[in-house]
């Protein structure tokens, strides 16, 4: 089966489940289990054919229930007394009520016992049953919609995406994408929240009609925003980060640059990945603009990178390289760097002079500093020996 055939099947099934709902054995068993705990009575659930699909008496499963068939035929409740049980081919005394969903009868619930005793709570059982079915249906719809969102996003990342097909699927999930577009990726640490709880936190901050939000894998989410200025995206992302940190969830978020053509969304996605890859590990929010130079360096030939970094830094000790990293992180500010490294200002000046002696590049000269910084970034990218 091809990927597009799979998508078409999902689209078809999604449309069908919006209009119809079948009472499955799984939900029927859950209804029986939950209801019997509260009533201490035997419960039977019959499908739209009158076949028992769940029961407190497992021996009755898959048997025809003729009382239920009558309820399905008439659409009305059926009371079976002890004297009437032979008329319904072995059905036990009790009441049988139609299960309705969106004005259609999709099954029957039977409560075994003296009709006079159980009649008073029969309608309550019917109502609870229909509420459980409604909840099951809504959960199923949410899951289908979320899966479609993630499939649409996957399709947008491919070179061979078809705009018309994407538009049809977006209509199906009620989303309209308009330029500009921007992709964000959130990398989660360990957490206790369920997937849907996490998604809801993000949905609460973004326009559902113009945003796609979903999971890339178990610990990474994506956000594709549209018609949203870059600064507004940053604000919203910081708000979500604040909410999640308040729940003791560690995370990092990276965003790609804004693009104005749908086919370029995949570029923004790749940039968001680069933001996470090259951004400071202690930084919660990283934009591609902040690490663009590193990302460009990463695309260079491996041999050329190694040769450049080795030529510049090979004579420096680990201590001097660490000093340079701190010095550049402090924007060449000697006082701030010395304070951050907990060393005397004169000690820092001495180390800077040693760097100049050993490399020929002066860290206090902006042009030389750029060369040293590039060499250090490349060194950080190289695999550890």
UniProtKB/TrEMBL annotation:
<dbReference type="Pfam" id="PF17853">
    <property type="entry name" value="GGDEF_2"/>
</dbReference>
<dbReference type="InterPro" id="IPR041522">
    <property type="entry name" value="CdaR_GGDEF"/>
</dbReference>
<dbReference type="InterPro" id="IPR042070">
    <property type="entry name" value="PucR_C-HTH_sf"/>
</dbReference>
<protein>
    <recommendedName>
        <fullName>Sugar diacid utilization regulator</fullName>
    </recommendedName>
</protein>
<dbReference type="InterPro" id="IPR051448">
    <property type="entry name" value="CdaR-like_regulators"/>
</dbReference>
<feature type="domain" description="Putative sugar diacid recognition">
    <location>
        <begin position="23"/>
        <end position="155"/>
    </location>
</feature>
<dbReference type="Pfam" id="PF05651">
    <property type="entry name" value="Diacid_rec"/>
</dbReference>
<comment type="similarity">
    <text>Belongs to the CdaR family.</text>
</comment>
<feature type="domain" description="CdaR GGDEF-like">
    <location>
        <begin position="162"/>
        <end position="277"/>
    </location>
</feature>
<feature type="domain" description="PucR C-terminal helix-turn-helix">
    <location>
        <begin position="320"/>
        <end position="376"/>
    </location>
</feature>
<dbReference type="InterPro" id="IPR025736">
    <property type="entry name" value="PucR_C-HTH_dom"/>
</dbReference>
<dbReference type="InterPro" id="IPR008599">
    <property type="entry name" value="Diacid_rec"/>
</dbReference>
<dbReference type="Pfam" id="PF13556">
    <property type="entry name" value="HTH_30"/>
</dbReference>
